[in-house]
Design goal:
The protein has 278 residues and is an alpha+beta fold. The protein has three domains: 17-105, Orthogonal Bundle (Helix Hairpins), CATH 1.10.287; 125-172, SH3 type barrels (Roll); 178-258, Alpha-Beta Plaits. It contains seven helices and eight strands. It has helices at residues 2-55, 58-83, 88-105, 107-122, 162-166, 193-205, 241-258; strands at residues 130-133, 136-143, 147-151, 157-161, 170-172, 178-187, 217-223, 228-237. The chain has a five-stranded antiparallel sheet with strand order 4-3-2-1-5. The protein starts with a helix and ends in a 20-residue tail after the last helix. 15% of the residues are buried.
Amino acid sequence: MSYWMKLFTGWSQSLLDSLFTFSPKLLAAILIAILGLYLAKLARRYTFRLLLKVTKDEILSRFLARVLYAGVVVLTLITALSNLGVQTASIIAVLGTAGLAIALSLKDSLSNLASGIMLIVFRHFTKGDTVELNGTLGNVEEISLFHTKLTTPDNRSVILPNASIAQAKIINFTSNPTRRLEWTFSVSYESDIRRAKEVILLALQSESRLLEEPAPLVGVGSLGASGVDFIVRAWVKKEEFFAVQIAVNEAIKLALDEAAIEIPYNKLDVNLISKGTL
C-alpha cells in the first residue's frame, strides 16, 4: 500500500511541478493570441479606411486589408506556439506539404483565386461599372477572390468564375465619362436627302441631353436595296446612354413622319405571267 501511495505522491508532485513550469508559458501564449487577434482586427479596420480614402476603390482596399489581417493572424499563431516551446519549423514544413497537396486538389479554385487577385489589382473594372463579360451584360455588384457578381438590366444576378473572366474579352461601358450613340435611318430613294438630313439634325437639336462637343454627325452611310441609309452619331454622358437612345429613336421617327419623308421597308413585287403569253 505504501508503494502505491509513494507512486501517486510522486506522480502528483511531478504534475504540479510541470503545471507550475508550463503555466506561465501557456498564459503568455494565450495573451499573445488574444492581443495578436485584436491587433489583426484593428489593423484590418484602419488599413481599409486609409486605403479607401487614398484609392477610392472599396474592393481593392478590402482585399489588401484582408491580406494584412491574415498575415498578422499567422504571425500571431507562430509566435504563440514558439512561446510554448513548439518547434514551428517542423509545423511550417508540414503546412507547406499539406498546402501543396491541397493546391493540387483545388487547382480550379486556386485558378479562380489567382484570377480574382489579378482583377482586383489591375482594376479592369470596379463595383458599379457596366460591363460585358463572357457575353453577359450587367452592372458589377461584387468582385470577390473566387467569383464576380453581375446584375443584368432585367435584374437577374449572374455569378461568373474569375478564371473565365481573366481569359475572356472584357468590355467596360462606363470606364470613360461619355459614350457615343449611333443610329441608322433609311429614307426612300424618292425623298430629298438634303431635306431628310435637315429634319434629322433638327430632331437631334431638340434633345438637350446630347453633348455639343463632339458635334452630332448625320450623313449618308450607304445606298441600300430599299432606300438611302443615314448614319447618325452623337455623344452623351454615360449614365444617360440608354434613355437618350430611346428618346432620339422616337424623336427622329416622329420628325420624319411630320415632314412626310417615307421610311422604306422591304417590298416584294410578284409578276404573274399567263400561259397564253408564253
